[in-house]
Amino acid sequence: MNVNWRNPYEAVKEPFKLKGNLHTHTEHSGCGKLPLTEILQIYEKMNYAFIAITDHDIKTDISMLKSASLTVLPGIEIDIKGAKHFGVVNCDSEALYYDANATQQEMINRNVEAGGIVVLNHPDWQLREHYTIDELMELKNYTGIEIYNSVIEFLGGASLSTAKWDRLLAAGRRVLGFANQDFHDSPHALDCCNVISGNDQSPKRIIAELLAGRFYCHYGVRINALGRNGDRVFVETDNAKLIRFIGAGGILLKKAKSNSAEINFSNSAECDYIRIECLGEGEEISFSQPFFRG
Length: 294
Description:
Strand content: 25-35%
Oligomer: single chain
Strand order of the largest sheet: 7-6-5-4-3-2-1-8-9
């Protein structure tokens, strides 16, 4: 991971427009309901730029897939004794490391060393959540966690995991936030995704942008610009109704009823980081990556 934690968006020079879901199940998972060809059609109609196929404990063969508009990335969702799921995505399926006899930490390390994205999935799924905050703290070296998993809206537990993200960030853990659909069937295509900038949707570029944190988590609010100028952190959107600046383990630093807003680190001396939540109509919400003070 090569994140500019002071300003993850410093190198972003083009509009955010390439949407992608990194958590997609096919009929090969058992829990998935649809074949790959139908899944591609769904995401093509949604104008997505990329998806990752992440079936449970298997590397689904995507080598024969053809799409004029959609980049399909190889991935896998690894289950640890039926719980503690985590997703791995890379450019090449041969780079995905899975060994049922290895520990979770060993598999995280091997996949990160291979240049993959490793995301701890749906931390707040089920009544005994998949990851307690202590379990998230104990594991090391992962890329990030799912801060929103929209399929959990149909299940027990909570879709939103920003409270755990804030506790990790407040403890000095520099981990990215991801938003995914955890797609199993057509009703799960809810436009919860990660958005990178530009037009280049080659696998290597997609992976590089995500690993660098140059993306935002989208669930309805379209973000046009994110950045930092000195101590000033700012956001500009198309359709936000309320913007919230969060820091210090989840404290609300500032809110503005506007589609754009800014905050200054010099006015928030107690905060090591600031992240942004953009709220729109109804349940619409999108999230920035954190900006650390130094």
